[in-house]
């Protein structure tokens, strides 16, 4: 009589944790320090036609000057929603509406703004940590199921340690990325 159990899919767990790290790095790209960049608007979502849509899918994003972003909204009815999304985004940019064009002057970073951006970076990092811990929790559920299906206890322990080690490594990557980004933000 052989016992049938399914081992946790470590590759899938690693892939999902790597995805959380990649998403964090993309969010960090949106936190430009004093220079305008179209990627600053990537994480911003606007309610368009009943669904949350990335801001760059309701208009054309341009960077005509080092300290200015323009957003040319395609549909006039979306201008006020886009402006509202920009104001509530936490970027600390005051949009100026001119017809269907929204201008975003990028202010010189003062000490207070640097601290705000540092806090935004910390919240992005915390979201990544939560995502990684959720993947770990999923792995532990797979492990629990395998144990109830007959996985030997010593093998279960090895898998448990592997998943925990992978989680710790990814959390450390998040912490290192956050430290680097905060250092970059605080440079004058």
Structure description:
GO terms for molecular function: ribosomal large subunit binding. It is found in: Cytoplasm. The protein has 188 residues and is of the alpha+beta class. The chain folds into two domains: 10-27 and 111-186, Topoisomerase I, Chain A, domain 4; 34-105, 2-Layer Sandwich (Gyrase A, domain 2). It is 54% helix and 15% strand. The protein is built from four helices and six strands; from the N terminus they run H-E-E-E-E-H-E-E-H-H. It has helices at 10-29, 79-87, 111-148, 153-186; strands spanning 45-48, 51-54, 59-65, 68-73, 96-98, 101-105. A four-stranded antiparallel β-sheet has the order 3-4-6-5, with helices on one face. It has a two-stranded antiparallel sheet with strand order 1-2. A hairpin with a 2-residue loop joins strand 3 and strand 4 (68-73). Helix 1 packs antiparallel against helix 3 and helix 3 packs antiparallel against helix 4. The longest helix is centred in the C-terminal third of the chain and has 38 residues, at 111-148. The protein is elongated.
